[in-house]
Amino acid sequence: MTERILVAYATRYGSTAEVAEAIGEELRRSGADVDVMPVSEVRDLSPYRAAVIGSPIYMGKWLPEPQVFIEKNQNHLRTIPVAYFAVGLTVTDRSPEILRKAEASMDAVRMLVNPVEVGIFPGRLESGGLSFTDRTIIKMIRAKTGDFRDVQVVRAWAQAVCRKFMAA
Ligand SMILES: Cc1cc2nc3c(=O)[nH]c(=O)nc-3n(C[C@H](O)[C@H](O)[C@H](O)COP(=O)(O)O)c2cc1C
């Protein structure tokens, strides 16, 4: 039987969705059937042998949807291998302190379901298209804008996840 893997994500402006798609494509290369979808659309976890769940970081935290999803489905998720990823802008700086802070965005979900792997990837921030509130915040904190995603790094991480899923 073909293995089926879920890649579920939350996103506000689309960049995390594209990271999730790249992860899904890489997992498919291993021969698995992979469903990539917003976490809000996942209705049934029973077909999946493993799951990757990710969120962008906003104000130091994951978006609420994936956290609620993990909380609701924690019993099932504890029975399969799970990997988490976070996408944020601060982590263009790979210093240990910055990475630790970004990792802390996953503390709550790690306490619910222990992942076999976590990834933290630089994201994308464009001032056009942001909500008024988000635009105001990024002006206030003088956040840098641009697309800092590195698909090669994301794909290499997905390969490592795949190996862990197979070993689990
Ligand atoms: C209002 C606002 C707050 C943000 N807060 C953080 C943060 O605390 N840490 C971080 O690393 N990135 C932060 N970011 C950057 C986003 O995580 C980044 O742009 C991400 O790629 C957005 O993902 P999305 O396009 O899937 O929504 C913030 C962006 C905005 C607009």
Structure description:
With 168 residues, this protein is of the alpha/beta class. Strands 1, 2, 3, 4, 5 and 6 form a six-stranded mixed sheet that branches. The two termini are 17 Å apart. The chain has seven helices and eight strands. It is globular and about 50 Å long. Flavin mononucleotide is lined by residues 11-16, 56-60, 87-91, 102, 123-125, 130, 134, 137-138. It comes from Methanoculleus formosensis. Pfam families: Flavodoxin_5. This is Flavodoxin.
Give the fraction of residues assigned to helices. 40-55%
Percent strand: 15-25%
CATH topology: Rossmann fold
Order of H and E elements: EHEEEHHEHHEEHEH
Give the helix tally: 7
Query: CATH superfamily name?
Result: Flavodoxin domain
Major beta sheet summary: 6 strands, mixed
Detail the poorly predicted runs: none
Tally of separate domains? 1
Spatial separation of the terminal alpha carbons: 17 Å
Record field, number of beta strands: 8
Q: List each distinct ligand once.
A: flavin mononucleotide
The CATH architecture designation is 3-Layer(aba) Sandwich
Indicate the radius of gyration in whole angstroms.
16 Å
Mean pLDDT: 96
CATH level 1 class label: Alpha Beta
- What is the global morphology? globular
Structural class: alpha/beta
